[in-house]
Specification:
Layout lengths: L1 H6 L5 E4 L2 H10 L5 E4 L13 E5 L8 H11 L5 E7 L1 H10 L3 H5 L18 H11 L2 E8 L10 H5 L1 H11 L11 E7 L4
């Protein structure tokens, strides 16, 4: 995503706490992209940016709602926040569809954590309510993979990809389907003073 945004002519700063991620970024991204090893909580220059992209971060934090508040407080008026996170409600729904009732009963926790399985999936509506309560204006709410992950015949995810994508795009901002997205995406704006 950093490379794509940069290719459109924007100044990009990539931050991540993982040196492994940053080493890969340094090896693959345009050298004019600024790369910093930094946790979200330690970024202190958000007011320098017109757009902040925070994707797949909140669900790994101990205090995700505090992070939202901190970003709002630091961003300049008129700046936009692209916020995406793993949707707990969709995780519960998909596991019920597949009969993983023990996993649901355990609060979506397993004894041996899978690397890419988030520590703390978040319920979409409370996150949205918090974003509004700190002052963000909601520009758009989108569910990502509202249908894809629920297809019983996994081959059809590939065989019928164009039709699936068309259906996703048609309904991913529409009630009730938006809330079934495996991931949620909120486009938010800090109002002008």
């Amino acid at each position: 995503m950093s490379e794509y945004i940069h290719s459109m002519g924007h100044r990009v700063t990539l931050t991540d706490p993982s040196e492994d991620v940053l080493a890969y970024a340094r090896d693959t991204l345009d050298p004019s992209i600024v790369i910093r090893q930094q946790t979200l909580q330690l970024i202190d220059d958000l007011n320098d940016y017109d757009v902040v992209v925070c994707h797949a971060v909140l669900e790994w934090l101990e205090k995700p709602y505090d992070a939202i508040t901190s970003m709002f407080d630091q961003m300049k008026s008129g700046a936009k926040l692209s916020l995406s996170f793993f949707n707990k409600d969709a995780a519960i729904f998909s596991n019920a569809v597949y009969g993983n009732f023990d996993y649901i009963a355990q609060g979506l926790k397993v004894k041996k954590q899978v690397k890419l399985n988030p520590n703390q999936p978040l319920p979409a509506k409370p996150v949205l309510a918090h974003c509004k309560s700190v002052g963000f204006e909601v520009k758009q709410v989108t569910g990502i993979r509202c249908f894809h992950d629920y297809m019983r015949d996994l081959e059809k995810q590939t065989l019928l990809y164009d039709e699936l994508l068309t259906t996703e795009r048609k309904y991913n901002t529409t009630e009730p389907f938006v809330w079934l997205g495996r991931y949620m995406h909120f486009l938010l704006e800090k109002p002008l003073k």
